[in-house]
Each structure stands twice: as structure tokens, then as C-alpha cells.
Amino acid sequence: MKQLEAKIIENKSLARGFYKMRLGSAYLAKNSKPGQFVEIKCSEGGEVLLRRPLGVHRILNGGIEVLYKVIGKGTELLSRKRPGDTVDVIGPLGNGFSIKRNTNDKRRTTVLVAGGIGVAPLVALAESLVHSSKLIVHSKRKKIYVLIGACKKGHVLCVNDFKKLGAEVIVYTEDGFLGKKGLVTDGLNSLLSTINYELSTIYACGPAAMLKTIAKIAEAKRVPCQVSMEERMACGVGVCLGCPIKVHTTSTQYAIPRTTHFVRARGRRNTQYAYKMACKDGPVFNAKEIVW
Fold first, then answer.
1. By CB count within 10 A, which of 104, 126, 144, 187 is most buried?
2. Is 88 a residue whose pLDDT tops 60?
3. Residue 280 DSSP SS3
4. Interacting residues of 140 by C-beta distance below 8 A, sequence separation 6+
């Protein structure tokens, strides 16, 4: 992790309110992993005090891309930036997705589930999965399914990016004007009923309610699942304690000791609950670890 000045190579609108920014930085390109994020300073003055946490969207030669939605003053200021401008960046931060890269990994099917802007870190993940499968000699390429959910057509992003990687993309919109009508979590249930889910892995990013449902589906079918939590990560390093995630733990080490308590269930041993910080310990967690 390092604080640095990164030059903006590109900052273009993808759809109404959605932007993709390319940052030139050999350091970020070399050290970033799918699922990690960076903290970007939005203004030089005191107009916006806190940095904005943006997930690593793509890892390129000589830099990275971030995908963001304009939802407040900070991101609105970022959208005004032009190529050639520089931004103060801290990163890469957090823990990313865990990807097995050896021939002993028998899980040939990967399912990526995105809700809205949660699609951002999954492109870098898909690229890494494709790259890792190419490195495995004498084995079949992994099959990648990508389920993208959004409230309406204009919020569906990155479909072509996934298709270029050879992934099978299925889109769900709540209004039904693009793809299938319905929730992406319903689509996940449908997909798992048609594939050999016992050899699958699920990766997801999106709203908490969506992730909770996905975690329940994965647990019911005993499919490994990693989720990237969307939280307000002000400092990015776990100091401000502003992005707590309630988790199951048997450890004696806690992020916030005073919140730990014990629950006795019939036929079970005592279970300890504690809190981890999304920015420092995540934003990617094993879905089974989280107390939903």
C-alpha cells in the first residue's frame, strides 16, 4: 500500500451517471489484486473531506481502471476530471478474492454474480480467472457464468467485457426491459439447478440484501462462496472503525472486543460473534463467515 499521485489516462461516461477512470501507475498495476480497492482524493481543497473508496475494476499494463457511479459531491467532482489531471491515491487496500491456481483444483465452473455497480470488481476477477486457467497445462478451461442484475436497462454494465473473455452472460432487470425480468438471485437458483454445482464456486458483489440471499443459496447447496461487501470505508485502513462486519469467530482476537458475545444453541458449542472491518479484513469475505 502506498500514497501516490496517479495521472488520469481516461475518464469517460459509460451510461448516465456511470464512469470509468483509467489511472496510470506502474505500482498499482503490479501490486493490485482482484477485489482490492483504492482510496481517491476527490478535491484539493476542503470541498470534500473524505476520500472515496473505489474497487479495482481492471488491472492493466501500467495502471488500473476504476468504475464508479456518481451519487454525491465526491464522485461528481471525480466525473469532472480530465485526461492529464492527477489524483491523490492510496492503495491497493484490503483483501481481494482468493483464486486457486493449480491443477488440483477440481472446481471447473465459476459463477460471478453482480448487483448494480457491484459489477466493478468482477471484471478484474474474470480476467484473472481466464488468465490462470490458461496457465494450467493439460486441463480443461474453466467455464465462467456471469449473472448481472440491475433495476433497469441503463444500469446494466460490462456485458461485452465479460463476453470478450468467453463468459456466458445472463442479465436480469427488475423492469424486464433488458435480459430476463426478475432478480439476479432467482437467476442464480435457476442456473445452479442446470449445472453441476458441486464443482462450482460463487463470487458475488452487490447490495447487502442480495449478498445475504446468495450466501443462503450457497450454504444450502454447499457451494463455496466469496462476497465483496459494499460498505462506506472512510479511512481504508481500519482506523476509523466505520465499516464493521459482524462475523462468526472462535478466535480470542477481535477487531472490536466489546461487541463480542456468546450464544448457546441446543446441541452446539458456544459461538462467538465479533466484528471485522470491511476495509482492512475485507472487503472480500467467505460468505459463511458473516453473520447475516
1. 126
2. yes
3. helix
4. 108
CA distances from 273 to 13, 212, 260 (A): 42, 17, 5
CATH 3.40.50.80 location in the chain: 109-230
> What pLDDT shows up at residue 198?
84
Distance between CA atoms of residues 93 and 32, nearest Å: 8
The greatest distance separating any two alpha carbons of the chain, rounded to the nearest whole angstrom, comes to 63
Query: Torsion angle, CA of 248/250/253/257, rounded to 10 degrees?
Result: 60
What's the first-to-final CA gap in the chain, in angstroms? 30
- For CATH 2.40.30.10, list the domain ranges present in the chain: 2-93
Taking the C-alpha atoms of residue 206 and residue 197, their distance in angstroms, rounded to an integer, is 21
Rounded Cα distance between 288 and 19, Å, is 33
The C-alpha cell that represents 59 in the structure block? 488491472
Question: Could you tell me if 218 and 239 are in contact, meaning their C-beta atoms sit under 8 angstroms apart?
Answer: no
71 vs 17, 41, 117, 149, CA distance in Å? 8, 16, 11, 19
Residue at grid coordinates 442484475: 149
Q: Which three cell numbers stand for residue 255?
A: 477487531
CATH number at 109-230: 3.40.50.80
CATH architecture of 2-93: Beta Barrel (2.40)
Averaged pLDDT score across all residues of the chain: 89
Closest of 83, 61, 77 to residue 6, by C-alpha: 83
Under the banding of pLDDT at 50, 70 and 90, the label for residue 250 is low
| Average pLDDT rounded to a whole number, residues 49-60 | 95
What whole-number distance in Å separates Cα of residue 107 and Cα of residue 118? 24
- Is the pTM of the predicted complex or chain greater than 0.85? yes
Q: Which pLDDT tens digit goes with each residue over 96-136?
A: 999 876 545 566 799 999 999 999 999 999 999 998 766 44
